[in-house]
Amino acid sequence: MGRATMVRTGFLGPAPAGSSGWCAVALQEGYFVSVSPAKFVEDVRAEARKVTWPTRRATLMTTGAVLAMAGLASVFFFLVDEVIGLAVRKLFGLGG
């Protein structure tokens, strides 16, 4: 297995020009290591296996809470809009 190539740049940004077919991974400010796409994918999969994924129950509970809060917020803003609309209509004598 070959060694990674260090490339010095003046900023954290995209891979240097001419590094077609390689991914640049930032090590520290201004330094990149060229990694083959296959190695990059292998490393990503290894890191994904380390993730503690939420349980199905936790996911459903969180989804339910988000939907409930979105529903409550929509009702709240609907009511506020209606009250402000009523006040504007009364103030300017519109709509009846």
TrEMBL record:
Swiss-Prot/TrEMBL GO biological process terms: intracellular protein transmembrane transport; protein secretion; protein targeting; protein transport by the Sec complex
Superkingdom classification of source: Bacteria
Subunit structure: Component of the Sec protein translocase complex. Heterotrimer consisting of SecY, SecE and SecG subunits. The heterotrimers can form oligomers, although 1 heterotrimer is thought to be able to translocate proteins. Interacts with the ribosome. Interacts with SecDF, and other proteins may be involved. Interacts with SecA.
Protein name: Protein translocase subunit SecE
InterPro entries noted in UniProt: SecE_bac (IPR005807), SecE_sf (IPR038379), Translocase_SecE/Sec61-g (IPR001901)
Stated family: Belongs to the SecE/SEC61-gamma family.
GO CC list: plasma membrane
Protein function: Essential subunit of the Sec protein translocation channel SecYEG. Clamps together the 2 halves of SecY. May contact the channel plug during translocation.
Keywords: Cell membrane, Membrane, Protein transport, Translocation, Transmembrane, Transmembrane helix, Transport
Principal location: membrane
Locations listed in the record: Cell membrane; Membrane
Organism: Komagataeibacter nataicola
Topology class, membrane: Single-pass membrane protein
Gene (UniProt): secE
Molecular-function GO terms, alphabetical: protein transmembrane transporter activity
PANTHER family assigned to the protein according to its UniProt record, in alphabetical order: PROTEIN TRANSLOCASE SUBUNIT SECE
TM region positions: 58-80
